[in-house]
Design a protein that fits this description.
Blueprint lengths: L1 H10 L3 E2 L1 H8 L4 H14 L6 E2 L1 H10 L1 H12 L23 E6 L10 H20 L17 E15 L5 E7 L2 E7 L4 H8 L6 E9 L2 E8 L14 E5 L11 H11 L6 H8 L1 E7 L21 H12 L7 E5 L21 H4 L4 E3 L4 E5 L2 E5 L5 H7 L8 H11 L28 E4 L6 E5 L2 E5 L8 H5 L8 E6 L2 E6 L2
Parallel strand pairs: 1-2, 6-8, 9-10, 10-11, 11-12, 14-15, 15-17
Antiparallel strand pairs: 3-13, 4-5, 4-7, 5-6, 7-8, 9-18, 13-14, 16-17, 18-19
Helix pairs in contact: 1-3
Bound molecules: 2'-deoxyadenosine-5'-monophosphate, fe (iii) ion and zinc ion (ZN).
The site of zinc ion has 6 residues, from loops.
Length: 498
């Protein structure tokens, strides 16, 4: 338990002095407390090298209000009147669903947070991605690193990227490791195509290298990623709607626009064409940050209209409860929801989201999660790793998650970079590997819509129903608000409710 605290701080590059450590260790929920403390330090961009008692006191002071709210809500029974019976709309069709969950990690999460778990986690990642690469024809007859001699042509190997460096002359060095050893691989900057590929390679992903060895220097001629084949389009006689980052409870939640969206989905808003699309809607996928949460960043309470987490979910249930009952609503969590931050995040717990669980048409999955919507396999991932990818790769940004999603699909991993802003739990199995090729890959988090078709896969970022926050102003993040992507009988449509 106490090792877990230290590991969490180490992963966040924060040192902690003895007194602060003792106080955190004595906290009744020390792990959760540690996680929110680290989040707070990262969110507020404080350059803290050593966590002292003074800093701890500042944090506690800031969060007194939050804790008070939480306590009150635990004593007072829920007073909001939620009516889970769904409004009748002209579209009620009584269609049968063919819905099932393909991947959900909610009950598969096992970790004691020890260092050996961390090694098991990386082994699991390596093995899963190795097995995909091992089947690539280009890598036939690849060899372990310790069996590569000097001055050899046609070398093929598979390894995990330890680091990528730029040399003085502007070439790239990829440090690669497998079970047998490690080696440096040079990517020459005059090999323009390959150099461009190398610029997108990140730490901790697993790749194949084709190259040759001159003396002790291994020079790459190609980089092979696990990748995906082009998929065939499946017939689809319905519409699926994708939203995320609704941030209910925040003063910047766009309630009027959200109500227009609900009116549209029920057939009471929009022109003939839009109503025709609405009529076909069978599934609504909610990809995280349904509510704004509490204590997510410093001084958040100033930007909240609902300061109690239970009441935020009650309000979410009230709004979503207006959706006609023949639409299945699939809800996956994000970093503002009331579940652990480390990914994979389990599904929303019934204790917090009781009123949502009372909706008969709601389903709950983990983040990431994979569901089948009448045979259309949909990978749902909130998108926390976009923050890391945008920082690490030239040309990637919060605005261009279509490019990032393409790269994640080719890497076959949702959050390849370990130890930056995306907290990853050291599970025995790496659940963030993209095991099966999905038909739809749905993300959110950045609050900016994006869409691209990549090898037949629909890559969707569903934007937000929250207007620009103070935090986003600082980072110059301009959200695209109330723009809702729909896959209507196989084609992409974007409907605007702002
Ligand atoms: O994320 C809302 C927006 O803020 C989204 O564009 C990502 C950005 N964001 C959130 N956290 C970070 C960090 N730690 N660094 C950089 N950018 C960030 P939300 O999850 O709704 O708060
Ligand atoms: Fe969000
Ligand atoms: Zn988010």
């Amino acid at each position: 338990m106490s090792d877990d605290i230290i590991l969490k701080f180490t992963n966040a590059n924060i040192l902690i002095n003895d007194k602060a450590y003792e106080r955190i260790r004595n906290h009744e929920n020390c792990i959760k407390f540690t996680e929110s403390l680290i989040e707070d330090i990262i969110y507020s961009n404080q350059d803290i090298l050593i966590l002292t008692e003074e800093i701890l006191d500042q944090y506690l002071e800031k969060n007194v209000l939050k804790e008070k709210n939480q306590k009150v809500s635990e004593i007072i029974p829920e007073s909001v009147d939620i009516n889970p019976t769904v409004s009748q709309s002209k579209f009620q069709t009584g269609r049968p669903f063919d819905f099932h969950v393909i991947q959900d990690t909610t009950k598969k999460s096992y970790t004691s947070g020890e260092v050996k778990d961390f090694i098991t986690y990386f082994n699991s990642r390596y093995k899963q991605l190795y097995n995909i690469l091992d089947k690539r024809r280009e890598l036939k007859d690849h060899r372990p690193i310790n069996r590569i001699g000097k001055n050899e042509e046609a070398i093929k190997l598979i390894g995990m990227v330890n680091d990528i460096k730029n040399t003085k002359n502007g070439h790239k060095i990829i440090e690669l490791e497998d079970e047998t050893g490690d080696t440096n691989v040079l990517v020459h900057n005059e090999n323009h195509q390959l150099y461009e590929k190398a610029e997108k390679i990140v730490r901790d992903e697993v790749i194949g290298i084709i190259g040759s060895k001159k003396g002790t220097l291994l020079i790459a001629s190609d980089i092979v990623q696990p990748g995906v084949p082009r998929i065939d389009e499946k017939p689809m006689d319905f519409s699926a709607v994708f939203i995320s980052d609704v941030h209910i409870g925040s003063s910047t939640f766009l309630e009027d626009a959200f109500n227009r969206f609900i009116k549209w989905i029920n057939g009471d808003f929009g022109d003939d064409n839009q109503q025709e699309i609405a009529q076909d809607v069978k599934y609504l996928v909610l990809g995280g940050d349904t509510v704004d949460g509490i204590g997510i960043y410093p001084n958040q309470e100033k930007e909240l209209t609902i300061k109690d987490i239970y009441e935020q979910y009650d309000e979410a249930a009230r709004l979503l409860g207006d959706i006609r009952s023949d639409i299945k609503i699939i809800i996956s969590p994000g970093n503002h929801d009331a579940v652990r931050l480390a990914e994979p995040q389990p599904a929303l717990p019934e204790t917090y989201a009781k009123s949502l669980y009372e909706l008969k048409n709601a389903e709950f999955v983990s983040n990431p999660g994979v569901v089948s919507l009448d045979g259309i396999n949909t990978l749902i991932y909130h998108g926390r790793s976009f923050d890391d990818m945008a920082m690490s790769v030239k040309g990637f940004s919060h605005q261009r998650t279509d490019l990032v999603m393409t790269e994640l699909i080719e890497k076959r991993h949702l959050a390849p970079i370990y130890g930056e802003r995306t907290p990853l739990a050291s599970e025995y199995e790496d659940h963030l590997v993209i095991k099966e090729v999905p038909d739809i890959f749905h993300t959110g988090h950045v609050h900016i819509n994006a869409y691209k078709r990549h090898k037949g896969i629909h890559l969707i970022n569903s934007g937000t129903f929250q207007s620009q926050t103070e935090f986003q102003k600082i980072y110059n993040i301009v959200p695209t608000c109330a723009e809702v992507p729909v896959i209507h009988r196989g084609s992409f449509k974007l409907l605007k409710f702002a």
